[in-house]
Amino acid sequence: MTWLVNYLDRYGELLVFAIVLLEQAGLPLPSALVLLAAGALVGQGLLSGPAVLGLAMLASVGANYAWYRAGWSQGHRVLGLLCRISLDPDQCVRLTETMFGRLGSATLLIAKFVPGLATLAPPLAGVLRVPQARFLVLESLGSGIFLGVTVGLGYLFSDRIDWIAQQLAAWGLTAGVILVAVLLGWIAFKLLRRAWMIRRLRGARITAQELSRLLQAREPVLILDLRHPMQQERLPHAIPGALRIAPTELWRRHGEIPRDRDVVLYCS
Predict the structure, then answer these.
(1) CA-derived radius of gyration, the chain
(2) Residue-wise over 85-100: b if at least 16 C-beta within 10 A, else e?
(3) DSSP 211
(4) Other C-beta atoms within 10 Å of 113: how many?
(5) Cα dihedral angle (94, 98, 99, 101), rounded to 10 degrees?
(6) What is the pLDDT of residues 21-68, one digit of tens each?
(7) How far apart are alpha carbons 133 and 140 in whole angstroms?
(8) Which pTM does this prediction carry?
(9) Over the stretch 231-257, which tens digit does the pLDDT of each residue have?
(10) Closest of 14, 5, 108 to residue 54, by C-alpha
(11) Are strands 243-244 and 262-266 parallel, antiparallel or unpaired?
């Protein structure tokens, strides 16, 4: 924390702008930590509160508007690009689509508070053709709420920033080693779990040609279309005779799935 405060004291509000802009652009940077430290320096009179919030707002809304326009013009390819750099791409898309399915464009108001959702919400809003004016209003409100809360917390605890820095300095290398070990362990767990899942799914896959032959031979097979309603909206083409059930409805509609035949799952 001490080094972060020193950098903020040296480069001021421009460092806040740069960190927020780069994080919203997709880089894994700790903008929340920077905003907390900036809020603490605002409380000590070393930074300007309006400048910190104004530049952070400009960076956040500007970067997310660029993602929104990319989603509008490039469609779901942008989501695929973002998820390829995610440790849990399937979960990040599913979470974002579920939230949009429940809240619509109002998801932008809370996206900044949900890990993973903040990255995918702006391009998905573009994919879903949320009107530009509505996007800008909701994105500005959502960014303003998040930035205000984060900087405000740093401001409230500004008198404790020196104590926090002293505690971190006392732990020194030990704290850093523990933090890095926990982070690497979490990343390794995510990667191993995904590799295990992909290996299992690869053995159970059926190609489009094999499925076509089964259907032409009138084999007793059921095709279960498990795509999210938003995926179906973007790609409305369906396999003839497929039973459409959203993943969130499986617990309620599982009785519609026959147990006396093979079932082919169609998902994205």
Answers:
(1) 23
(2) eeeebeebbbbbbbbb
(3) H
(4) 13
(5) 140
(6) 988 887 777 788 888 888 888 888 888 989 999 999 999 999 999 999
(7) 11
(8) 0.65
(9) 666 666 778 788 888 777 777 888 888
(10) 14
(11) unpaired
